[in-house]
Write the structure tokens for this entry.
Amino acid sequence: MTSDEPEPSSDERSLRQRLQTLYHGNAPASRSFRYGLIAFDVFTIGFFIVSSVGPEAQWVLVVDVILGFLLLLEFIARAIVLKGSLRFFLSFGALVDLIVIASLMAPLIFENLAFLRVVRMLRLLRSYHLLHELRQEWAFFRRNEEVIQSSINLTIFIFTVTAVVYVLEVDDNANINNYFDALYFTVSTLTTTGFGDITLTDTLGRALAVVIMVFGVGLFLRLVQTIFRPPKVAYRCPDCGLNRHDPDAIHCKHCGASIKIPTEGDWN
């Protein structure tokens, strides 16, 4: 700290210390606080998905603004913990949070535009924070991390693409009247089923369909393959370097060397 920078007051130091304890401490109160944040994140993600289905009712706008203020307070708390560093404000997670907060506050100044539905789907990215917290607390998430991660990626991708389809087509396409119509079209396109009862006929819609088919189908199939293939564990073979093995393997399938994969013992 340079001589030109003001010394933080005792109240500021005390507030930062309390927040640091809540966010990073191991006391029961700290753990309860972090579980509360997880529950809040799950609620906001679920609310944004559900609220995207129906029309913009007045109560939805009120809840949007309330959530925006709560998210802003939580964002400020994290900034205080990290002393407002430039690295924090430029991080991808912080930028996503700021965009989502701005979209929730927008109805206070502007008309609640439909494209904000797409922006709010970025809140789904918060699920990576949830996974990080749960991985630290629960052995189940550590054992099934790859499957859970792929499931989250697949969910984020489907709902984000669906939101884009809905916003771009709901006013111009007679076959897309609600969010579920857009979800139906998205999933049938990603799975290459293509029933043909819902099609995108305008130029922008067809361009979007091309993007979904060219880039989306490959990613969709890749994620589904990861979810349903037999589970593997990450362990590097000391001889050949193969780092994916069956959970109960005692020999490397590639070179036959003996391997000792660490397991979590049953203490019951």
Remarks:
- The chain is about 60% helix and 0% strand.
- The mean pLDDT is 76.
- The longest helix spans residues 203-228.
- Strands lie at 233-234, 244-245.
